[in-house]
Every structure is written in C-alpha cells, then in structure tokens.
Amino acid sequence: MPESPGKPPEFDLKLAEVAAWVGTGPDGIGQGVPDAAEEELLEIEGDDPARALRQTLGMFATGVTVITTKVGDEVHGMTANAFMSVSLEPPLVLISVDRRTKMCSLLYEGRRYGVSVLATDQRELSDRFAGRVADGGAAPAFDLVHETPVVDGSAAQFVAKVAKSYWGGDHSLFLGRVEYACYDENARPLLFHGGQYGDLASGAELA
Ligand SMILES: Cc1cc2nc3c(=O)[nH]c(=O)nc-3n(C[C@H](O)[C@H](O)[C@H](O)COP(=O)(O)O)c2cc1C
C-alpha cells in the first residue's frame, strides 16, 4: 500500500498490525463499556454522588452553544456546553446530547447540525433553548447555511454533518465533519462555570 502523504508513521499501520497491537495495548484500548462492577468504583466525596459529580464537572469552565437543526420548516434549538473541537484535518467537532432530549431524536448519521457559540448578550437565548423560560419575547433570528439554521449575532457559527454517532451512557455523542465555520472577532463569549453564567473579567490575557 502506498504511504499516505503527511500521515505520521504510527498511523500508517496495516489492519493486521492494529489488531495485534490492540490485543496487547494499554488497558481500555479496544475494550467495551465498563461492566456494572467497575461502575461502582466511582470514588467521590459527599452523600449524593450524582450531585457531587455534576458539581465537580462544573469546575470545567466552558462557553455556551445552541445546537440547531431543521426538520421541514421547523427549526429546533438546544442549549449545550458539551461541545469540543476534535480534529483540524479532517475538520471534526463533537457534541454530547442527552438521550431524553428532542434534539437527540432528530440527529443521526448524515444529518447536519448547527453550532452557534453564544455572546454575552445572548444569555436569554441560552435559557430559552434550555427550556428554562416559556416561549415569549422576540423570536430568535436564524441564518440558513447549507439548509441548516445558525443563530444570528452569535460569536461563532459552525455547520457540521454527523459522520458518526456513539453511545455515551445517558448521552449520545455526535461527531460532525465541519462544512462551514465563521466567527466575529469582536464578540465576547458567554461563559458557563459552576452552574452560573459568566463573562471574561477584563479580556486581559494571562502573561
Ligand atoms: C448552560 C447549559 C448547558 C447545557 N448543555 C447541555 C449539553 O451539553 N447537552 C445536553 O444534552 N443538554 C444540555 N443542556 C440542557 C438542555 O439545553 C435542555 O435539556 C433542553 O431543554 C433540551 O431541549 P430539547 O429536549 O427541546 O431538545 C444544557 C443546559 C444549559 C442551561
């Protein structure tokens, strides 16, 4: 097989070699989901482990996005902070969506979703698309890119096509190949930390 240009040699393995390596690889590589006995090994302080885990995870400060998709003429949006960049080449992003949400029932491999990174003045939109406030007030405006809605005036916008979906416990993970990306360099991003919204304090970068 010809060598693929630009690919580091460790990725250029023949399938048989990969199979052999997985068999002897580090713990967890090539293995399935943990069984019930392993799940009980969660070590965490406090009487309410689920709450303590949520609070601990909340120490990870994030931005806030609205995930959007369009079914017929209807736009559906859902607030999400579980968004991450995965790869530049190919361009990939990942979102984690609660399986009980309407959004989860609308996404599948081949479908497109929009990701709008909210700005500090779009906090109400975050509450609205998290189902925290009843519909009302001015309707949010969307731009359509590749037939996919993105929130007008947001700090950054992506359109991605679901390349793969994965089991993620009570969430589903949707790996998307980015087809469109743009940002407003003057926007200030809305932050989320410890269950509260935040703003970049001074805009100053740490030395
Ligand atoms: C700041 C914030 C971040 C959130 N992040 C996520 C997330 O990453 N994934 C998720 O499934 N739900 C997340 N939620 C909750 C959903 O927005 C909420 O369950 C929403 O009502 C689901 O909408 P749907 O069922 O209409 O699709 C978040 C809520 C807030 C306020």
Give an overview in words.
With 207 residues, the protein is an alpha+beta fold. It has a domain at 61-192: Roll (Pnp Oxidase, Chain A), CATH 2.30.110.10. Helix content is 17%, strand content 36%. The protein contains five helices and twelve strands. The chain has helices at residues 15-24, 36-39, 49-57, 102-106, 123-129, and strands at residues 62-63, 65-71, 74-80, 83-87, 92-98, 112-117, 142-145, 148-151, 156-168, 171-183, 191-193, 196-198. Strands 3-2-6-9-10-5-4 form a seven-stranded antiparallel sheet. A three-stranded antiparallel sheet has the order 1-11-12, with no helix packed on it. A two-stranded antiparallel sheet has the order 7-8. The radius of gyration is 20 Å and the shape is globular. Flavin mononucleotide binds at residues 64, 78-82, 96-98, 101-103, 126, 130-131, 192.
